[in-house]
Amino acid sequence: MAILELTQYPNPILLQKAKPITDIESASIQTLIDDMIETLHSLPGIGLAAPQVGQSFRLFVFNLSAQEGEITPYKGPHVVINPEILKLDGENLSDEGCLSITGFREGVKRASFASLKGFDRTGKAIELTGEGLAARLFQHEVDHLNGLLMIHRLSSLKKDVFYRWFKKRQHHA
Ligand code: NI
């Protein structure tokens, strides 16, 4: 297993639609999954999508067990391959960050309930449902696979805040 290097905004791989995985059981995909889980656990994050480690595949891993006070059936590492959102409901505004935009946090409006279907690492069809943080995570990660980042979900006012922040950070880099 290996800890993978994270791609950072504005790396173009983060802004393109990722490819579906056709060979879930292949050694290269299984190794990628192991490495992504190890990488996630080395970071202060709860979810990681393949484009964030430079691989344009429809795959994300997550682990919600570190979140205090959240009731979640998703403790320990989980893998979701070729996810499709089935249902979104409700609305919730909450602060969000992204491992590909380190240091930036801002309120993002998301559905408060989300269900999705996909496949686990053995190729078995799975369905996941989540509320609150889990719902937010599912939407954030599926967005990653569609080339969308949390900053694209901000109000225009907050987008301006982000671009000013980014310009300043580049200037000081
Ligand atoms: Ni992210």
Write out key terms for the chains shown.
173 residues; alpha+beta; Peptide Deformylase; 5-stranded antiparallel sheet; two-stranded antiparallel sheet; 3 helices; 7 strands; 26% helix; 26% strand; globular; binds nickel (II) ion
Kindly summarize this structure in a few lines.
The chain is built from 3 helices and 7 strands. With 173 residues, the protein is an alpha+beta fold.
Beta strand %: 25-35%
Strand line-up of the largest beta sheet: 1-2-3-6-7
CATH superfamily: Peptide deformylase
Which class best fits the helix and strand makeup?
A: alpha+beta
First-residue to last-residue Cα separation: 31 Å
Unique bound compounds: nickel (II) ion
CATH-derived topology: Peptide Deformylase
In terms of quaternary structure, the protein is single chain
How is the main sheet built?
Answer: 5 strands, antiparallel
Question: Based on the structure given, which CATH architecture is correct?
Answer: Alpha-Beta Complex
Question: In words, what does this structure look like?
Answer:
31% of the residues are buried. The model has no long low-confidence stretch (mean pLDDT 94). The protein has 3 helices and 7 strands. The strands form 2 sheets. It has a 5-stranded antiparallel beta sheet. Helices cover 26% and strands 26% of the residues. The protein has 173 residues and is an alpha+beta fold. The chain is globular. It binds nickel (II) ion. The site of nickel (II) ion (NI) has 5 residues, from helix 2. Nickel (II) ion binds at residues 98-100, 140, 144.
